[in-house]
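User: Predict the structure for this protein chain, please.
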Amino acid sequence: MQRIRLRYTKRGRLRFTSHRDFQRAFERALRRAEVPMAYSAGFTPHPKVSYANAAPTGTGSEAEYLEIALTKARDPEKLRVLLDESLPAGLDVVDAVEARTSGLADRLTASVWELRLDGVRPEEAEGAVTAFNAAGTVEVRRTTKNGVRTFDARSAVVHLETHSDPADRPTDQPCAILRLVVRHVTPAVRPDDVLSGLRAVADLAPPVPAAVTRLAQGLLDEETGTVTDPLAPDREAATALVAGSAAAAKAPA
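Assistant: Here is the predicted structure, written as structure tokens:
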């Protein structure tokens, strides 16, 4: 009867939850909130939840998306509040819209990432970023379940720069902040692949693991290199529907 699209976060220690951990927590939240879920058919029915492009375990995120199917219509904002209250702090449901368009997953074509490199001087990071951006290809290796794979980490990167904000550096210790826009390609190029690329082209090796956070994901605007809100088309469709209904009500009989 109704499909709702949600944006949720992974913050603080909850960034270490796996996608499977989140699935279990979310299904418990659905039961606690008494959401009228639609279920699949078959011997083992399960809630109709569609997850889209989950962030890797160990990374934070401000922009994870999923879609649920309901058997009864619910107000998206009220549903968001109920689910948010039913999830642990850090797994926060921050946005909800009724699905009025198709293809949410098709609109997740790129991500914006922030990489915090503690122990790295900003000028050192700047030199590595310049070398990476100037390279035609940057081959990196990643161990997969099918063995070691070599691929180009440069071609998927739309934009990479150092980001300077004193608020991001609460101590006097060296710290470099990188902002990265990367296309969703196959094989996927992840932030740790870009860090491997920075090591390959400029020998940049942070002394501690980078703190990685996805700031946004959505449709890539090729002209500007920005990533747009994937829920915006649903909001626009809802606004157009309301406007059309209001116009029809005012029209003379």
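The longest helix spans residues 232-250.
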